[in-house]
Amino acid sequence: MIVSPSILAAKAETLTQECAALEKAGATWIHIDIMDGVFVPASTFGPDIVAQIKAACPSLYRDVHFMVDDPATYALPYIRNGAQSVTFHVENYDEATIHQTIAKFHEMGLNVGLSLKPGTPVEAVLPFLEELDLVLVMSVEPGKGGQAFLPSALEKIAFFKKEKEKRALSYAIEVDGGINAETGALCAKAGAEILVAGSYLFGKEDQTERVEALLHE
Ligand code: DX5
Ligand code: ZN
């Protein structure tokens, strides 16, 4: 299992130290949530955050999740600053523009993920599966941390696992929202390979045990 701590739950003043502590605890990825105040009501980090994390913890794989209206443009400064995996939303564009955006990011040497909101059916992602490095199943409504896990995500994870095996595809299955030891175990059982966790990990005394619990799902 890969653990990708979501920095949305970090304190701004100690963010890079907290990332370093989570890396020490066994996390190998870092999940950077970018919101533009349009696709979701909140807005978060500017592109500097990617450079700061790259400088402080260069070995953490920078998994950037764009909850923005126009990721094909919005993501560019974040990519220049060192994003390695770029995930955007299937709700962003029409089918042709999604194909083009995936190709554009691939040409830039990135891994590309596509995410779907809880209310979006799995069929929306089907036309893109062969092109993707990652499918990100949202198990909460995108926009903020600390929400309760929506069990409907489990069926979606199982669907993407079945489809991956059936068609011998290579995308990784990631799940995001409300992940803790219990929900993480359910997701692992359903086929998730990457667990994003924010409020479960940041600012916790027993961080190492918590990362380990998720790693061993
Ligand atoms: C939600 C973000 C998540 C969020 C997860 O919009 O995409 O990555 O930070 O936070 P927790 O783990 O607290 O649900
Ligand atoms: Zn996220």
Summarize the structure.
The chain contains 8 helices and 8 strands; from the N terminus they run βαβαβααβαββαβαβα. By secondary structure, the chain is α/β, with parallel strands linked by helices.
Structure explained in plain terms:
The chain has 217 residues and is of the alpha/beta class. Helix content is 35%, strand content 20%. It has eight helices and eight strands. Strands 1-8-7-6-5-4-3-2 form an eight-stranded parallel sheet. Helix 6 (152-166) links the parallel strand 6 (134-138) and strand 7 (172-176). It starts with a strand and ends with a helix. The mean pLDDT is 97. Zinc ion is lined by residues 6, 31, 33, 65, 176, 196. D-xylitol-5-phosphate binds at residues 6, 8-9, 31, 33, 65, 67, 140, 142-147, 176-179, 196-200.
Largest sheet: 8 strands, parallel
Name the hetero compounds present: D-xylitol-5-phosphate, zinc ion
Tell me the series of helices and strands, N- to C-terminal: EHEHEHHEHEEHEHEH
Strand content: 15-25%
User: What is the arithmetic mean of pLDDT?
Assistant: 97
For the terminal residues, how far apart are their CA atoms? 7 Å
